[in-house]
Design brief:
The chain is mainly alpha-helical. The chain has helices at 3-34, 66-86, 90-111, 137-159, 194-198, and strands spanning 40-42, 47-54, 122-128. The chain has 5 helices and 3 strands, in the order αββααβαα.
Length: 199
């Protein structure tokens, strides 16, 4: 593995680890601190903290089909890991790794998370008005990571365009000019002109 690819792989792995650690740690905190309280409002009610067991994905899609959702998450993880390893920059690799880490955090949360009766579900615990759904830090990593990775790619493409910078323009090569001199006393067939014969 060349040094550039090794560096991108390390940054992608860092993104995965940070996303998984923050998601699982915050979910465990939410279950421990908010499990007995239905709603904890902050910032004048703009942000509400409440534990919700979500057996589906975003907005509750796929609820009740935990096995299908888990398989879909595994497939998405494989694609994201491949993208993280092939991404052209370390910044992009980190955020793509963060997206993969968010998906991995949800998968761990769904399968082996220590949530008592919530086994098979993802713990969502953040609600920001007027956003219609409750989410967790894994969802935040997925959304923010996708946007940040896209912006990083756009910035890189603008800094390194495919087209080579235009150099000084050079005109077409000068054409050698051929001067044809006309001799009235010379004919192309080698015969002398009437003027030459008269002289």
């Amino acid at each position: 593995m060349n040094p550039d690819r090794r560096s991108r792989s390390l940054w992608a792995a860092l993104g995965v680890l940070v996303a998984v650690a923050t998601d699982l740690g915050s979910s465990a905190w939410a279950v421990d601190r908010l499990g007995t309280r239905p709603v904890a409002g902050t910032l004048g009610g703009l942000v509400q903290l409440r534990v919700v067991a979500n057996t589906g994905v975003s907005f509750g899609l796929g609820a009740g089909h935990e096995a299908v959702v888990a398989l879909a998450e595994v497939g998405a993880l494989v694609v994201l890991i491949v993208l993280a390893l092939r991404t052209p920059s370390r910044v992009t690799a980190f955020f793509v790794g963060g997206v993969a880490g968010g998906g991995l955090g949800n998968l761990i949360d769904r399968t082996i998370g220590p949530h008592g009766n919530h086994h098979g579900a993802v713990i969502d615990w953040i609600h920001i008005a007027p956003y219609p759904a409750v989410f967790n830090l894994a969802d935040l990593w997925i959304r923010v990571g996708l946007v940040a990775a896209g912006l990083a790619l756009l910035a890189r493409n603008r800094r390194s365009p495919d087209a080579e910078p235009a150099g000084p323009r050079q005109g077409p090569p000068a054409m050698a000019r051929t001067t044809l001199e006309f001799d009235p006393g010379h004919r192309s067939d080698g015969r002398a002109s009437p003027t030459d014969r008269r002289s």
